[in-house]
Amino acid sequence: MTQVWGRRAGLFAAAYAKSNGLRKPAKSEIEKATVKILRLRSTSPGPTVVEVRQEIRRIAGELVGIVREEKCLDEALACISDVRSELVRQRVQGQDPRFNREWVEGLQNENLLDVLEAVVRASLARRESRGAMYRVDYPLTDDSEQWLCNLVLRREDGQWTIQKEPVHEFCVSLPRGRHPYGQKGEGNCAAR
Hints:
The protein is α+β, with helices and mostly antiparallel strands. The protein is built from five helices and six strands, in the order H-H-H-E-H-H-E-E-E-E-E. 46% of the residues lie in helices and 14% in strands. The strands form three sheets. A two-stranded parallel ribbon has the order 1-2. Strands 3-6 form a two-stranded antiparallel sheet.
C-alpha cells in the first residue's frame, strides 16, 4: 500500500514542480546557508554539535515536559537563549563532509531550538491545561472563548508574535466552560 501512495505522491509532486517551476533562491539566502555550513568546520573552541543537541534534549526533557509550570518554562527560555548564542560556536568533530551525520545535526540544531522555543512560548501564553499539556499553575481546562482557540506563533527577525485563531467546529457544538483537566466540558465533540 505504501508503494502505491508513495508513487502517487511522487507523481503529483513532480507534476506540481513541473507546472510551478523552481524558485531561484536569493543570493543572500545562499550566502547565509554557506556561512552556517562553513561555520561548522571551525576548529576554534566551542561545543560540539552533539553537546548542543544533548543540551536541547535536556531542556526539553527537564523543563518542558507534559507537566509544566511558569517557573520552569521561564527557565527554559533562558536556557534556549544561552544555547542559541552557542550555535555560532558549535563545531563538528569529523571534518569529512561526505555522509557526515554530524553536519546534518549541526544544521538541524537551530531548527530544533526554534520549535522548542515556540512550544515554550505557546505554553506560557496558554494559561490553562489542555491536550497533552498540564499546567500545574493552571490546572483547569478553560473552554470559554478565551482559550477555546488555536495559538499561531510566527517568528520574524528574531521576534515572536502569537495570535489566537478560532477552532473549526466539525460537529454540533464544542465543549464550553471550565472544568478539571481530563474531564469533558459541556458539548458533544472534541475540537480539531
